[in-house]
Amino acid sequence: MSTSKVSSRPAVETSPPNADRMDAGASPSDLIDARIDDLGDWRGEMLSRIRALIKEAEPEVIEEWKWRGTPVWSCKGQICTGETYKQVVKMTFAKGASLADPTGLFNSSLDGNVRRAIDFHEGDTLDEAALKSLIRAAVELNKSKPAARR
How many CB atoms lie within 10 A of CB 75? Predict the structure, then answer.
Protein backbone atom coordinates (compact mmCIF):
# COMPACT_ATOMS: atom_id res chain seq x y z
CA MET A 1 0.00 0.00 0.00
CA SER A 2 1.43 3.36 -0.92
CA THR A 3 1.17 6.35 1.31
CA SER A 4 1.49 9.94 0.37
CA LYS A 5 2.86 12.75 2.44
CA VAL A 6 0.70 15.85 2.57
CA SER A 7 2.54 19.11 2.92
CA SER A 8 1.08 21.87 5.06
CA ARG A 9 2.79 24.44 2.86
CA PRO A 10 0.82 25.61 -0.19
CA ALA A 11 2.18 24.69 -3.58
CA VAL A 12 3.79 27.62 -5.35
CA GLU A 13 3.04 28.11 -9.00
CA THR A 14 6.45 27.96 -10.64
CA SER A 15 5.48 27.17 -14.19
CA PRO A 16 6.71 29.88 -16.52
CA PRO A 17 4.13 32.34 -17.75
CA ASN A 18 3.39 32.51 -21.47
CA ALA A 19 6.33 30.56 -22.83
CA ASP A 20 6.31 32.75 -25.95
CA ARG A 21 7.25 35.77 -23.79
CA MET A 22 10.02 33.92 -21.95
CA ASP A 23 12.65 34.75 -24.55
CA ALA A 24 15.86 36.35 -23.38
CA GLY A 25 14.59 39.78 -24.37
CA ALA A 26 11.49 39.80 -22.17
CA SER A 27 11.64 42.45 -19.46
CA PRO A 28 10.68 41.69 -15.86
CA SER A 29 7.59 43.86 -16.35
CA ASP A 30 6.61 41.79 -19.40
CA LEU A 31 7.07 38.59 -17.39
CA ILE A 32 4.91 39.93 -14.56
CA ASP A 33 2.26 40.90 -17.13
CA ALA A 34 2.41 37.37 -18.49
CA ARG A 35 2.06 35.84 -15.01
CA ILE A 36 -1.03 37.96 -14.34
CA ASP A 37 -2.51 36.96 -17.72
CA ASP A 38 -1.73 33.28 -17.20
CA LEU A 39 -3.38 33.15 -13.80
CA GLY A 40 -6.63 34.35 -15.35
CA ASP A 41 -8.57 34.29 -12.08
CA TRP A 42 -8.87 36.19 -8.80
CA ARG A 43 -5.14 35.64 -8.14
CA GLY A 44 -4.19 37.51 -11.29
CA GLU A 45 -6.56 40.33 -10.38
CA MET A 46 -5.12 40.49 -6.85
CA LEU A 47 -1.51 40.44 -8.06
CA SER A 48 -2.35 43.17 -10.57
CA ARG A 49 -3.95 45.34 -7.89
CA ILE A 50 -1.02 44.82 -5.50
CA ARG A 51 1.37 45.76 -8.29
CA ALA A 52 -0.58 48.95 -9.02
CA LEU A 53 -0.54 49.93 -5.33
CA ILE A 54 3.21 49.36 -5.12
CA LYS A 55 3.73 51.65 -8.13
CA GLU A 56 1.40 54.28 -6.65
CA ALA A 57 3.19 54.17 -3.30
CA GLU A 58 6.67 54.30 -4.85
CA PRO A 59 6.78 55.61 -8.43
CA GLU A 60 10.53 54.82 -8.70
CA VAL A 61 10.04 51.14 -7.94
CA ILE A 62 12.01 48.65 -10.02
CA GLU A 63 10.32 45.44 -11.13
CA GLU A 64 12.41 42.29 -11.17
CA TRP A 65 11.81 38.62 -11.99
CA LYS A 66 13.73 36.23 -9.72
CA TRP A 67 13.87 32.71 -8.39
CA ARG A 68 12.35 30.91 -11.37
CA GLY A 69 9.29 33.10 -11.60
CA THR A 70 8.70 35.43 -8.69
CA PRO A 71 7.82 39.09 -9.18
CA VAL A 72 10.02 41.29 -6.98
CA TRP A 73 9.74 45.03 -6.37
CA SER A 74 12.77 47.04 -5.25
CA CYS A 75 13.80 50.58 -4.41
CA LYS A 76 17.20 51.02 -2.78
CA GLY A 77 16.88 47.33 -1.91
CA GLN A 78 14.14 44.75 -2.05
CA ILE A 79 10.70 45.87 -0.90
CA CYS A 80 8.57 42.78 -1.43
CA THR A 81 7.69 39.81 -3.59
CA GLY A 82 4.37 38.74 -5.07
CA GLU A 83 4.07 34.96 -4.92
CA THR A 84 1.06 33.09 -6.26
CA TYR A 85 -0.14 29.81 -4.80
CA LYS A 86 -3.27 27.77 -5.46
CA GLN A 87 -5.25 29.32 -2.60
CA VAL A 88 -3.36 32.51 -1.80
CA VAL A 89 -1.43 35.46 -3.17
CA LYS A 90 1.44 36.14 -0.77
CA MET A 91 3.10 39.51 -0.50
CA THR A 92 6.37 38.98 1.38
CA PHE A 93 8.21 42.01 2.71
CA ALA A 94 11.97 41.41 2.74
CA LYS A 95 12.50 43.40 5.96
CA GLY A 96 8.98 43.15 7.31
CA ALA A 97 10.01 42.29 10.86
CA SER A 98 11.60 45.76 11.07
CA LEU A 99 8.43 47.56 9.96
CA ALA A 100 5.70 48.91 12.19
CA ASP A 101 2.34 47.39 11.26
CA PRO A 102 -0.23 49.45 13.18
CA THR A 103 -3.20 48.13 11.19
CA GLY A 104 -2.18 44.47 11.48
CA LEU A 105 -1.75 43.67 7.79
CA PHE A 106 0.93 41.04 8.37
CA ASN A 107 -0.78 37.67 8.82
CA SER A 108 1.86 35.20 7.64
CA SER A 109 5.54 34.37 8.18
CA LEU A 110 5.33 35.95 11.61
CA ASP A 111 7.87 33.71 13.36
CA GLY A 112 11.06 34.81 11.62
CA ASN A 113 13.41 37.64 12.48
CA VAL A 114 13.50 39.26 9.05
CA ARG A 115 10.54 38.71 6.70
CA ARG A 116 6.82 39.22 7.18
CA ALA A 117 4.05 38.44 4.73
CA ILE A 118 0.45 39.18 3.93
CA ASP A 119 -1.63 36.30 2.59
CA PHE A 120 -4.54 37.39 0.41
CA HIS A 121 -7.34 34.89 -0.20
CA GLU A 122 -10.14 34.92 -2.72
CA GLY A 123 -12.71 37.53 -1.72
CA ASP A 124 -10.33 39.54 0.48
CA THR A 125 -10.41 43.29 0.13
CA LEU A 126 -7.29 45.39 0.25
CA ASP A 127 -6.81 48.13 2.82
CA GLU A 128 -5.16 50.24 0.16
CA ALA A 129 -4.13 53.14 2.40
CA ALA A 130 -2.55 50.84 4.99
CA LEU A 131 -0.78 48.77 2.32
CA LYS A 132 0.64 51.86 0.61
CA SER A 133 1.83 53.14 3.99
CA LEU A 134 3.59 49.82 4.64
CA ILE A 135 5.23 49.93 1.20
CA ARG A 136 6.44 53.49 1.80
CA ALA A 137 7.81 52.46 5.20
CA ALA A 138 9.73 49.60 3.55
CA VAL A 139 11.25 52.02 1.03
CA GLU A 140 12.20 54.45 3.80
CA LEU A 141 13.85 51.62 5.71
CA ASN A 142 15.84 50.69 2.60
CA LYS A 143 16.92 54.30 2.12
CA SER A 144 18.00 54.64 5.76
CA LYS A 145 20.37 51.66 5.65
CA PRO A 146 23.73 51.80 3.88
CA ALA A 147 24.05 49.42 0.95
CA ALA A 148 25.62 46.08 1.79
CA ARG A 149 29.20 45.57 0.64
CA ARG A 150 29.80 42.85 -1.89
Answer: 20
**Closest to 83 measured CA to CA, from 7, 19, 32, 26:** 32
How many H helices and E strands in the chain?
A: 3, 5
**Single pTM value for the model:** 0.81
**Domains in the chain and their CATH numbers?**
27-144 (3.90.1150.200)
Contact 65, 31 (CB under 8 A): yes
Contact between 34 and 18 under an 8 Å Cβ cutoff? The reply is yes
The residues facing 73 across adjacent strands are 63, 80
- Nearest-angstrom CA–CA distance, 45 and 39: 9
Inter-CA distances, 97 with 6, 7, 23, 104, Å = 29, 26, 36, 12
pLDDT tens-place string over residues 62-106: 999 998 899 999 999 999 999 999 999 999 999 999 999 999 999
Q: What is the DSSP string of 114-142?
A: S-EEEEE-TT----HHHHHHHHHHHHHHH
